Please model this.
Amino acid sequence: MIARRQLLGAAMLCAAPLTWSQSNYPNRPIRIVVPFGAGALTGTFAQIVAEGMKERMGQPVIVDYKPGATGNIGAELVAKSPPDGYNLVVTTNATFAINPSVYAKMPFDPLKDFEHLLTGIAYGTILVVPPDSPYRTVADIVADGKLNPGKLTQASSGTGSTAHLAGELFARRAGFKMLHVPYKGGPPARMDVMAGRVTMMFTDPSGVPLIKEGKLRALAVSSGRRSPAVPDVLTLAEQGFPDVVVETWFGLAVPAGTPKPTVTKLHSEISAFLERKDTRERFLAFGAEVPDTSQAAVIRRITDEQQMWAPIIKDLAITAE
Model:
């Protein structure tokens, strides 16, 4: 009996530090890993969230940039970190929905190796043409694309990017083909569209200033509803393509196995910050909105988009090592 009590007491002592650390979470600095380089919108999102977490949770929040392999390097780092709530990763559609079909071997399972907290922001791409383009509507593009197969060209920020795939999805649903012209980033792609060297592109909201200056003409947005960045521009759905809905989104996740109370606290605190009016206004400034922040919504996004992109990526033979 004495031995049994001693064993029970020892077990309770061993469990006590874990229970204490969970009930007092967080009691040290938290890290948000951005799996892309500094200067991108993913970093802006992480910095804003870090400010909110520090304010609400009372601990420093460090933003750590770990770029490479379209987000795979930073995501793998977090997937293999201790599941204690002190290492978060910025999740994106590129890394978690597109990469699984592009990379022959993924270093992590996008769903099984993470506890997804939420989708933080989302924004649609904007279909733009040169200011002197003969195409004034989406219908104009579709008509010419069908009449002259292979004539139209599409610029993008890179092969396999959201912008590239948005164009491919649109062309397939509309029933014509375009020649893809990849660039190393959005700015050089937009420059060639402005100059008329390329027919069109789907740009992220960083192209909005050029639209407002009249250097690009916006014909449609790819999101499910109109963009706050260009509220007068119709969606593709409003122009006859309800099955062409493409959004770029950023979220947050922790390693699988993170204690449920910690996950619940993170989700609650971050969601409360994101849903504040002043926070929403900061994101609206660059054309992004805060969508449904439930855990079920982000998992649904990843699953649905993996299924949407897989056949297109396979057909285009887009691969990476």
In short: The first helix runs from residue 2 to 23. Residues 116 and 253 are 4 Å apart (CA to CA). The domain at 126-239 is CATH 3.40.190.10 (D-Maltodextrin-Binding Protein; domain 2). The two ends are 60 Å apart (CA to CA).
